[in-house]
Amino acid sequence: MKLSSRIFVFLLLAAMTLLIGSFAAAQDDLPDMGVALNSEVSGNVEFWHHWGSPVRRNAIRRVVAMCQQALPNITVEEVFKPFGEGWTANIAAVAAGTGMPDVIVSDRLQLPREASDGIYENLQPRIDADGFDTSDFYPFTWEQTLLDGNSYGIPQETDVRVLFYNKTLFQEAGLDPNDPPETWEELLAYADALDVIAEDGTIERIGFFPLINVGPDIWALANGQSFVQDGNPMVNTPEFAETVEWVRSWVDRYGGWDRVQEFRATLGAPPNDAFMSGRVAMVADIAGYLSQLNFYRPRTTLADGSSVNTDIGVAPLPYNTSPASWSGGFSFSIPTGAENPDAAWEFIKCATGPVAQSSWARDTYAIPSRMSAANDPVLMADPNWQFFVQSMDISTSSEFVPAYPNYMEQFNQRAEQIYRGEIPVEQALTEAQAAIDETVAANAP
Fold it and tell me: Please, is 431 exposed, middle or buried when counting C-beta atoms within 10 Å of its C-beta (0-12, 13-18, 19+)?
């Protein structure tokens, strides 16, 4: 070989070595998201979500930015769709065969039903091929993604319902701000001290109302109710009947359904919602509500007209028989027919990984679906966060009933009649149960 040829080969090998070394170094420079990613996958990912509040929109954009760094060949466009509208639009797009996103935030409670309708791609082949570890997820969050043993979404977040209470109003009313009510009986006594009702019956402030943010199905869990028994939905039970009667007693307490609705119509969105406005002293809400409170930093107007920063407390939901709570949550799914499923899968792995979930939780106070992220040391340094994670121990979630996933709608259709006193609780639950049983029987395999 001539000298010039040898020099050329040497230079070529040297250049290739430098190129490979540079590529390896570039790969090493990619952020570790705590989950195995294939950074060589490329493509554009259109990502639909419903997080439009200042807190959550910024939080999801941070997650997207992190994943863009970890997946440099993938471009993610996050698109906000108002809650519910994105799912409706996606179903229509899948039916039409065009216009669906590559990734969508899916409702885990509806995921098996929508998967059975062909709305989402079966992710199990990708999970198996990648050896994707599912052991880090809260078990119920993973089980909710399954249809016939196959997953149709990767859990991204969950939540837990707790009681938020206004310590400032507690103190003004002569209540111990560090001793929130534990039972339904105590809740009533605290409301007696906190209510402010005008002589003409106009509601100026109430201590508590059970239908703000949650429904009687949540409160029934704290009264020993089990809604699915031997695979069958059950609403006509003594426990649920007692709970509904309890809720109706609160409606009557504040002057009836119309008076309560008039009061609720005066409330707005944060920072003018029931709790931040100081119009309701105690409310049930998800742990993530604390991020809104931290963002808006509400103030309380005292009886003397002065305004002070609201001192906020968190506590378990008051119970009748035993402590309980409820958790829902969302997953990330690939709609059937998405244009870039490979890139979508890499983004989903990244955005639901422990690093991304920790980031999301630090911003939003939503509970991660990954237990390792829920126990993030930075988050656990906050006593409120410790309480939220501990509350997961007493929380449950809804069980999917294939023959009638939305069985609670039968009660909801009759709820207002109950609260108005137009139909007895026993009659309403008997009718609702009969309708549920009929639908389950008609849809049985």
Answer: middle
Q: Residue 385: CA atoms inside 13 Å, Cβ hemisphere, count?
A: 20
User: In this structure, are residues 42 and 73 in contact, taking their beta carbons and an 8 Å threshold?
Assistant: yes
Q: Is 263 exposed, middle or buried (0-12, 13-18, 19+ CB in 10 A)?
A: buried
Second-level CATH architecture of 161-326+408-443? 3-Layer(aba) Sandwich (3.40)
Residue 429: phi, psi to the nearest 5? -70, -35
**Residue 345 and residue 333 in contact, taking contact as beta carbons nearer than 8 Å:** no
Question: Left (φ > 0), alpha (ψ -120 to 50) or beta: where does 428 sit?
Answer: alpha
Question: Under 8 Å CB-to-CB from 441, ≥6 apart: which residues?
Answer: none
d(CA 233, CA 223): 17
Where in 116-176 does DSSP place strands (E)?
146-147, 150-151, 154-158, 161-166
Strand, coil or helix: 215: coil
Domain ranges of the chain: 33-159+328-396, 161-326+408-443
Total-model pTM = 0.89
The owner of tokens 């807190």 is: 55
Q: What is the pLDDT of residues 162-216, one digit of tens each?
A: 999 999 999 999 999 999 999 999 999 999 999 999 998 889 999 999 999 999 9
* Equal fold, 33-159+328-396 vs 161-326+408-443: yes
Distances (CA, A) of 120 to 109, 345, 419: 14, 13, 39
Q: CA–CA distance from 278 to each of 165, 270, 306, 355 (Å)? A: 10, 12, 13, 36
Q: Which CATH number describes the domain made up of 33-159+328-396?
A: 3.40.190.10
- Nearest of 284, 287, 298 to residue 384 by alpha carbon: 287
Q: Are 342 and 43 in contact (CB under 8 A)?
A: yes
